[in-house]
Design a protein that fits this description.
Blueprint: E1 3-10, E2 17-24, H1 28-38, H2 40-48, H3 53-59, E3 65-66, H4 67-73, H5 79-91, E4 95-100, E5 106-111, H6 113-116, H7 119-143
Antiparallel strand pairs: 1-2, 3-5, 4-5
Helix pairs in contact: 1-2
Pfam families: HxlR
InterPro entries: HTH_HxlR (IPR002577), WH-like_DNA-bd_sf (IPR036388), WH_DNA-bd_sf (IPR036390)
Protein name: Transcriptional regulator, HxlR family
Length: about 140
């Protein structure tokens, strides 16, 4: 079976490395990574996909918010998850984090220009979702 590479980890207390195993060329993770690299649509969906990212981005659509305001606006999200998601969105260039040198410290979050380009797409997806949901609900009503 073909392999892409062997993964090594450092052996504690030495300058030697130990093999952790090999990554298979056709492993699901590798195939997914390759697909995302080759398909722009998959890449885009990967950047905004997940349970919380669109919620967070939609809350920042019209205004700059502080962490606590975002948390209050999204029921069910934990502080840890919000922190992780905001860090990812910032790393991807979709959210701008501004720290003010005040006491107590103030941190604001806002959409970047790159994220603002997505607003018409979100609106179109929202419209599509509404139409699709109504269609499916009608189909389910007919079966009952």
């Amino acid at each position: 079976m073909p392999y892409i590479c062997t993964i090594y980890r450092p052996m504690y207390g030495t300058n030697k490395f130990v093999s952790m195993g090999k990554i298979k060329e056709n492993s699901t993770n590798n195939i997914n990574k390759q697909y995302i690299q080759e398909c722009d649509l998959s890449y885009a969906v990967c950047k905004i996909g997940g349970r919380w990212k669109l919620f967070i981005l939609s809350k920042l659509r019209d205004e700059t918010l502080r962490f606590s305001e975002i948390k209050r606006a999204i029921p069910g999200i934990t502080e840890r998850m919000l922190t992780l998601q905001l860090k990812e969105l910032e790393k991807e260039g979709l959210v701008k984090r501004t720290v003010y040198a005040e006491v107590p410290p103030r941190v604001d979050y806002e959409l970047t220009d790159i994220a603002r380009e997505l607003i018409p797409i979100w609106d179109a997806l929202n419209t599509w979702g509404g139409k699709h949901r109504k269609f499916i609900e009608k189909q389910e009503d007919c079966r009952e």
